[in-house]
Amino acid sequence: MTTQLRRNLLTFLSCITLLVALAVGAAEPPKGFPEPLNSTQFKEELSKGLHIVDFYSPYCPHCKHLAPVWMETWEEFKEEGNKLNITFSQVNCIESADLCADENIEFFPDIRLYNPSGYIKSFTETPRTKESLIAFARRESMDPDNLDADLDSALSLSQDLEGFDFLELIAGKATRPHLISFWPAKDLRDSDDLVNFENCARCREFQRTWKIISRQVNVEDIRTGHVNCESNPTICEELGFAELAKITNHRGDREPKVALVLPNKTSNSLIDYPNGYSVNSKGYVDFAKRTFANSQFPNITEEELRKKVRGSVEFLQERGSVSNNDIHLVFAYDPETVVIEDFDILQYLIEPLSKIPNVYLYQIDKSLIDTSRIFFEGMYEVINHNSSEAQKRFNEEYFAMNTVTQLPTFFMFKDGDFISHVYPGYSTTEMRKIDAIMKWVERYSTPLVAEVTSSNFRELMSFEPETYSNLAVQLVSGGKNKQIKGSNTLIHKLLCANWDYEHTRMENNFEQINIKRTKKADSIKLLREKQAPADKIVNKMREEIPHVDHNKLLLGYLDISKEKNFFKKFGITGDHKVGEVIIIDKLNNYYYTKDNFGNNLTPNNLQSLREAFVSLNIPSKALYNAKLGGRLMNSPFHSAFSFLDIVHQNGIFGYLLIVLLIIMLFKGPSFCRRYRIMKHYKGKRDVVGILGNVEKKQSQD
Ligand SMILES: *[C@@H]1O[C@H](CO)[C@@H](O)[C@H](O)[C@H]1NC(C)=O
Ligand SMILES: *[C@@H]1O[C@H](CO)[C@@H](O)[C@H](O)[C@H]1NC(C)=O
Ligand SMILES: *[C@@H]1O[C@H](CO)[C@@H](O)[C@H](O)[C@H]1NC(C)=O
Ligand SMILES: *[C@@H]1O[C@H](CO)[C@@H](O)[C@H](O)[C@H]1NC(C)=O
Ligand SMILES: *[C@@H]1O[C@H](CO)[C@@H](O)[C@H](O)[C@H]1NC(C)=O
What CATH class is the domain 31-149? Predict the structure, then answer.
């Protein structure tokens, strides 16, 4: 191509792109799109229900970018919003500067949720898309806390703690547990007070959360208190919350911290809340209740345990329903042989267990092997009852092999599961190794069926690949009560297929161990025949046959009504519907959606789903020869051809996008550099300023 020709072509293409950009940029508001609210209207409008308000300035580039998205969101959600009693509104902060000052708006656009009593929380997801805004509206409209008038008029029960009070608490003066929050403030007396928090974008919303927490934990007789870090800098620095004591940067990223003080303890009495900041009270309440309960090492009886574990488990919950989904870690000892030092290990478990959701610690003065056996037998009842295959039988010998241990030891049971675990503590030393015990606890304390989301997917994928080779994901849809019931049924069927697979897996493990045993016996025999030295024979006899526990399945469910972009995000192609199962090979990043006969995987066909698990993990035990066809996640081949999808989905705009792509091929390097700079600042803070300039310069050339 000659330079001249290339230049002409480029000009031509740029012109088209510019025209398109103009056409898109000047999008007309849809019919009936409301004017921004002024301060009089704001108060009146708010009293009518929940509102998601976009506080914006007509001059900020991000606001301009958001404007068409906001219009589309408003139009698409209008009708549903009427039914859910939640509305998308706007406030122009240049025209209504007083209102925005009253509401403490510090940057644009600031998107916030309000109820008739005022501000609740902020919408902070990026990128801000129609989908994410609508998902936020749906979620918040279903949260009963948001429209609880009693809660809005209620007061926080949290006590203002000065440094001295706090030090006394952690020194053992607390006779009840205290949950304490730490704030970047100096004049927060009542935790509901409207004070000015500096560089803490989340503080205001957390005040409401803290009020909810203080009332919820009070029911369990757990007290709450709050500490002003700016007036107690030494304490906060000692606790590792130095950033709350003084301002160290210009960002708004300081967040309140929370910790629990255990009662009547003179050392190690303070336990930090282990998870990151959340506006949701649930995690904090669970942490406080569970950690305090665990610190008491309560007794449990076998009957209580059976009742809990065999109770019904609901994964998706209807509003107001409670379901047990707990994991019980039981320290089992023999009162005849136990020594007082054996109990010391329990102290060291409190803190690490606070980090694993749903784990409860108990003690019992007998072995739980019989209880374990009853559960395992129950598993065989269920798989035989639900399958037309020949009866499968509980393998007593394999069970004994896995549960042989001395007391004291730990047993683990999960609500809704038949499979239990025993810590292989063959000696006192093993029972005093906190790291080994915690490693074992972490490996097996995964939720029975975990909710899979875009944010935890990578973590699930990398979790203990040695033990869990596959992640089996049941596609479900929450929402209405009827759908919730159907979804729970699907998940229970997936569990049933998993137990059926567990039978094959355990039988195979048993076989492998027997082969190794025979080999060992043979080589001992051989050594004897050769009249080898005695120590050689003894060494061989002492050799342990490792009990490997691999090829287990990690089970999950994906609520596709909440996770619309999941498949695209993780490079899983094709259409996927409720009822289907996707098996993901965690080690190789392959995913499987079809069984050995090319039909969609579903738990409604128990046998074919189990066979899929067997074919992938224990091919020597598979009933069918046909291999499963897998696909690579995020395959480069998908993305190489994805421009075809673009055209397909966007019609003429798709072609224009490809034209843009071609331009970028020519002008790519310089564009990319600028984009990197832009992104660098974008990560810093979402405000008008440096970023505005970068963007303006960009659109000029
Ligand atoms: C807001 O707009 C309404 C209707 O246009 C008007 O009556 C009212 O005076 C305005 N209030 C303020 C504070 O501008
Ligand atoms: C919407 O919420 C408001 C505030 O709680 C309430 O007064 C109103 O009755 C609700 N409207 C509908 C249609 O549910
Ligand atoms: C702590 O000790 C006090 C006084 O000895 C007692 O009344 C209280 O019940 C204890 N608290 C707990 C949680 O054991
Ligand atoms: C737990 O059980 C043991 C043995 O039965 C008993 O000595 C102890 O007092 C019990 N502890 C509690 C807190 O009930
Ligand atoms: C399997 O069988 C049991 C009875 O043993 C029954 O309660 C259950 O609903 C059946 N289905 C599944 C999916 O477990």
Answer: alpha beta
For residues 532-544, give the mean pLDDT: 86
Cα of 362 vs centre of ligand 4, distance in Å, is 11
Phi-psi region of 534 (alpha: psi -120 to 50; beta: other; left: phi over 0): alpha
Place of tokens 């009827």: 482
Structural element, H or E, at residue 261: strand 257-261
Lowest mean pLDDT among 38-42, 296-300, 475-479: 475-479
If one looks up domain 159-445 in CATH, what number appears? Answer: 3.40.30.10
Mean pLDDT, residues 1-23: 49
For residue 604, give Cα distances in angstroms to 13, 314, 451. Answer: 53, 18, 20
| More reliable by pLDDT, 146 or 24 | 146
The string of pLDDT tens digits covering residues 303-338 is 999 998 987 788 888 765 666 789 999 999 999 999
Q: How far apart are the first and last CA of the chain?
A: 24
Atom of ligand 1 nearest to the CA of 38: 1
What's the confidence (pLDDT) of residue 653? 52
Q: How far is Cα 178 from Cα 192, in angstroms, rounded to an integer?
A: 18
Is there a common fold for 31-149 and 159-445?
Answer: yes
- Per the document, the length of the chain is 701
Ligand closest to 48 (CA) is 2
Whether the CB of 49 sits within 6 Å of ligand 2: yes
- CA 586 to CA 367: how far, in whole Å? 36
The mean pLDDT value for 337-351 works out to: 94
Q: What is the mean pLDDT of residues 248-252?
A: 79
What is the 176 CA–ligand 3 centroid distance (Å)? 7
Q: Does the beta carbon of 600 lie inside 6 Å of ligand 1? A: no
Q: 567 CB contacts (<8 Å, ≥6 apart)?
A: 573, 574, 576
> Domain coordinates of the chain in residue numbers?
31-149, 159-445, 457-634
pTM given for the model: 0.78
